[in-house]
Amino acid sequence: MPANCEYTMKNTDALWLTPIAQADQGQRITQLSEYSRLNGELRLIELFAQFIGMANAVAENCSEMSDQVLIEECGVHPDKFTGVNMPNMIGALQGVVLASGCSTTGTCHGCAYRLGSIANQSPITTADAAYMAFERKGFMCHAYTGEDGEPIKFCVGHAKAHKSEAAQPLNPA
Q1: pTM of the predicted structure, to 2 decimals
Q2: Which stretch of DSSP H or E encloses residue 45?
Q3: Which position among 16, 68, 90, 161 has the lowest Cβ density within 10 Å, counted as fewest Cβ atoms?
Q4: pLDDT exceeds 50 at position 173
């Protein structure tokens, strides 16, 4: 299996980014501004493009590792998890849109409408939640399941998001 390395990065950039990745939001902005001042805007844009490639590779490697652990450590046949819905960058970006303007009060910890949750960063879940907004059938909460493992409760976040959207004017001019 080929390595997930759709990025190239200089070791000096990796050394520069390591403390930034460990910093809080304010410090990251300050340190990236300093990088841009020292190296120029174009170089910062190139670094960001490489960082996205690295983030995608990390997400893909986590998915492959999950599959490997399920096979080797848990004895699960690969056919049982071909659709594992692992978080990735696309799911996380979809999750930002899904969670925008939605209060998390009353939602479960893993709610797809809670920014940063696993479900909120999983592309299949965020796409399903967005689709269900058009279907009006209701999006089910996976924190509450019956004996058969199927969800039994509607998602509070989905209901709140739908209510919030209904309250918004179509043309806020």
Answers
A1: 0.79
A2: helix 41-72
A3: 68
A4: no
